[in-house]
User: What shape does this take?
Amino acid sequence: MKTVAIEIQLTKGYVTVVDDEDGDLQELRWNSLIVRTGLVYARRERCYMHRVVLSRILGAELTRTQQVDHINGDGLCNLRSNLRIATVAQNQRNRLTQSNNTSGVVGVNWNKQARKWHARIKVHGKSLFLGSFDSLVDAGIVRKEAEIRHFGEFSAVLSRKEMS
Assistant: This one.
């Protein structure tokens, strides 16, 4: 049986989506909360919609330390298939590139002295150098392969450039 996505209007002109089985949430007034990373979440009082939906899936309340990860990186997509439990570290890995990232690829930067693209990844608090590359594409490929190898399903979502 195919579920239908229901749109719920939030404040500030934002809209969130949920599966039809969570459609009763539209009876409540939800606000939009814009966090410093630029992501937007649906919230009422001190309750986030994504935590309500995931608690329903699990059949139990989430603990304070359990985080909810939006698989596609969109804080307004509260479809059940888009939510999963994550540790803080896993949740931080699966995010968009920061707006001040000049290469558009997480973990890749231009080294002026070497005149090459450098790729790095941080694993268990240690920065690992992945190599120097003539092309941004090559550096990005090596970085993505390292993410998948070290972080699996929690590797970063698409970059801002890849999404636009």
